Amino acid sequence: MPLFGTNGIRGVLNETISPELGYRFGMAVGTYYVDKKIAVAYDNRTTSDLFRDVVVAGLLNSGKDVVDLGMIPTPAAQIYCKLNNIPGVMITASHNPPNFNGFKVISKDGSNPGKGEEVKIEGLIENGNFNKSRWDTVGASHKEEAVEPYLREILKNVNRDQIRKKRFRLLIDCANSTTVVTTPRLLRLLEANYVSINANTDSYFPGREPEPTEENIKDLISFAKSTEFDLSVAHDGDGDRAVFLDEKGKMIDGDKFVALAADHLLDKYKGDLVFPVASSFLIDWVAQKHGVKLIRTPVGAPVISEVLTRTNGLLGGEENGKVIFPRYLNGGDGGLSLALALDIISSRGAEISDLIKELPDYKLRRIKIANRDDFKEIKAKFKEYYSKMSYDEIDGLRLLEKDSFILIRPSGTEPAIRIYISSMDSEWIDRREREIKGLITS
Ligand code: MG
What we know:
Helix 1 packs across helix 4. The protein folds into four domains: 137 residues, 3-Layer(aba) Sandwich (Alpha-D-Glucose-1,6-Bisphosphate, Chain A, domain 3); 89 residues, Alpha-D-Glucose-1,6-Bisphosphate, Chain A, domain 3; 104 residues, Alpha-D-Glucose-1,6-Bisphosphate, Chain A, domain 3 (3-Layer(aba) Sandwich), CATH 3.40.120; 79 residues, 2-Layer Sandwich (TATA-Binding Protein). The radius of gyration is 22 Å and the shape is globular. The longest helix is centred in the C-terminal third of the chain and has 16 residues. It has 15 helices and 19 strands. With 442 residues, it is α/β, with parallel strands linked by helices. Helix content is 38%, strand content 21%. It has a six-stranded mixed sheet, with helices on both faces. Strands 15-19-18-17-16 form a five-stranded antiparallel sheet, covered by helices on one side. Strands 8-7-9-10 form a four-stranded mixed sheet, sandwiched between helices. Bound molecules: magnesium ion (MG). Magnesium ion (MG) binds next to loops. The site of magnesium ion has 6 residues, from loops.
């Protein structure tokens, strides 16, 4: 089993990840990079102090100096690395439940390292060929402030005066985690009024689970429905995601928000789009409208980032609402997404729900079939049953009929099959869902 999953190393203390592993990870990262300084940041989980200390010990023993950025969102650490051209380490389990933690590497350009880099670091963790210090070559650690430069970078990408004039009224949900130190400050800089929930850091995440699913953010939804806000936002634990509710408290589909952001940014810049096969044909519509190319990739933010780098693409995104804008940072950032949302509303002078309604109404239904590891058989069955449809195999199997599709793929993190059905026609989606469920259980 490779140590690095799709988003670094994740696990539960003394069950699947140990302090010893954290130390070896620090030694491996310190040995791998030739740079003298390495940044370290962390979230507010119960195990974050412990994992920070062992990772830092490994880095120092490998001879590196550590820049301690404190408890901040992952994208704030990424921006620090990019601005200072140094690699970094983030200690977080992102949106996973409170008992999890993990570590990931940040490249010097602020992006996720490619698979090649991860494999080399993994090799070092296993073989233990570490650089070890003498008493007079061991590294030292000092603290630095990363929030202010991060917020300044976000503000460079929006029309601050226009947003200020709007005097927005917002509701924010920081998941008792890292965005507590950034999102309220960002909104004050934009002179927006806000009401906050789960806006104190708490390692036990008493307010809600760190993943901003509709189920997990029901407190936010009921609050947003009962009071008037221009927009409501919920972050995940480490702040690389934001999901939004419109002014009526209705959740905005991530697939639609990303399309709106792409449309907005393409008004200002020219460049190609990079989206996974799970995104609906709405993104094709945006690409056509602006006369740019759309590159389809397998599902997952790391591969989107890689393709963006390789093709020098303008913008990438995921159907969960993650916007990746490499001119700013080649990775998702909930803070940037929030600032972009306010930029879009203030520049277009309409309610967010109206802006969403103006887009072609491509619907995207996501279904998870748990406890299935027979993807190959299911794929063969689907190919046969839908033999009249054209298909591609960029990730799993995507069956296409005009601007509707069915995507089936094995989950990257658990023994399950993920299904995405998208069309403008709800009946088409209902019919396909019935057929698919029949096919899978037969
Ligand atoms: Mg995250």
